[in-house]
Amino acid sequence: MTAPVASRAGFSWDLRATHAAAASCRLPWSLPGAGHVVDGGVTLVAGNGRWLRPLRATVSLAEGSPYWSADITLGSEEEAVQLDVGDGLALSMCGHVFSLRVDQRAEDEQGPVTRSWRVQALSPLAWLDSPYVLSSDIYFPAGTTASEAVAELLAPAAALAWALPDWTLPTAGLTFTSTTPVAAARAIVEAIGGLLESLPDGSVVARRRYPMAPDRFASAVPDIELFDSEAVSRSVSTLHVEIVNRLSVSDGADGVSAQDRLVYEPGANPLAGTVRAWPNPWRPVRLVHTGRPEVVIEARGVRTWAVKETVEFKDGQATLSTPALALQAVEWRYVDLGGVTLDGETLTAAYGEGYSLADVRYTTRAWVWAVADDKIEDVQFLLEDDDDE
Q: Which superfamily, per CATH, for 128-208?
């Protein structure tokens, strides 16, 4: 037979662009002998329309990464040297066309005979991030919406699809110092719990990090179902992680570490005493313990009382022994540092760099419980939010 034998190998793989949590497609194949054709459904075209001959290609997108990454092995040195960093590529595989730009070129040589040429490529969005763009100061005036700001940042490289709730930037505007367009765009999107992600065609979507709310996981219909029979490899690792039993969300100031204060005050009877609690932020709480059933807790409600103490001001600030509800009077013993403002347990004087002592009178409030035991022992007391109050 003199006619070539035509053979074809088809690879079917469904890549969901709407939820590429950790998507990866690898299709290795070898060049056939003379007279044979193997079509793996993979093509590579340079930006100038020149067809290239890929021997191996891997594309991947990790959750949290804003752009696709491709590792391509070319068939000849001639093809590799004709590509420069920044050149466009169109990689067709797995039923998708990936719009990419050359990020790196590499040549591997093993012995006197074996040589290979590799190209690493990224989505066009990467050219708005370090090291391809210099960091600069970025400002958006008040009234700009989040989607408008992100679209403006990414306009030079990619079109934006906004799939998040939109909001107006702060009244004072929004300023980024010494950053890249991609970093600024990610900061805006992630502020509402979203992700900035490139699609195979080079466009960008700002989507929810979790497409389905956690309380709907049990009733949700999955986009893709995978079973043990479809897994070609698996690895298992054991990790030590920190767990919590309760999570509280408050309206406290961003960046301020809120912490409840719990104080035990022994009474005249060594088997009884008083527990006072200053929740931060203030809220209804109840006292529980991890001891024996003989430990008794009796709620006394919220108590308010006056406190007088001497505090030391350093660099214009002093700390009270208990959180204050209201400041009543300040009497300077030495240097008068001016008016004083109160924020929780912190006092701030008008003259912020001074040092002095002051007698301070203020009111405080706390949740109070009487506690008792039938023997002397260590008991752990804990605060829990009281949802019934």
A: Baseplate protein-like domains (3.55.50.10)
Q: 10-residue block means of pLDDT along the chain (389 residues)?
A: 41 44 47 38 75 86 90 84 86 87 85 80 93 92 93 92 91 87 94 92 92 85 84 82 71 57 91 92 90 92 94 91 91 90 88 86 95 91 81
| Rounded Cα gap, residues 262 and 264, in angstroms | 7
pLDDT of amino acid 310 = 94
Q: What pLDDT does residue 385 have?
A: 84
CA dist 338 and 321 (Å) reads 21
What is the β-pairing status of strands 204-208 and 160-162? Answer: parallel
pLDDT of residue 216: 87
Q: Hey, where are the domains in the chain? A: 5-122, 128-208, 261-385
Residues 6+ apart with CB under 8 A from 44: 51, 52, 53, 54, 57, 72, 89, 90, 91, 92
**What's the CA dihedral at 342, 345, 351, 356 to 10 degrees?**
130
User: What are the angstrom distances between the C-alpha of 208 and each of 129, 182, 201?
Assistant: 22, 17, 20
3-state secondary structure of 185: helix
CB 46: neighbour CB atoms within 10 A?
16
Q: What is the pLDDT of residues 26-59, one digit of tens each?
A: 544 444 333 333 344 678 887 777 888 788 888 9
Instruction: Note the helical H segments in 39-176.
Output: 77-81, 146-154
Taking the CB of residue 101, how many other CB atoms lie within 10 A of it?
22
Q: Find tokens 């006056």 and name the residue.
A: 306
Residue 181, H or E segment:
helix 181-190
CB 324 within 8 Å of CB 379: no
Q: Is 1 helix (H, G, I), strand (E, B) or coil?
A: coil
For tokens 């022992």, name the residue: 377
Indicate the pTM of the whole model: 0.53
DSSP one-letter code for 212: S
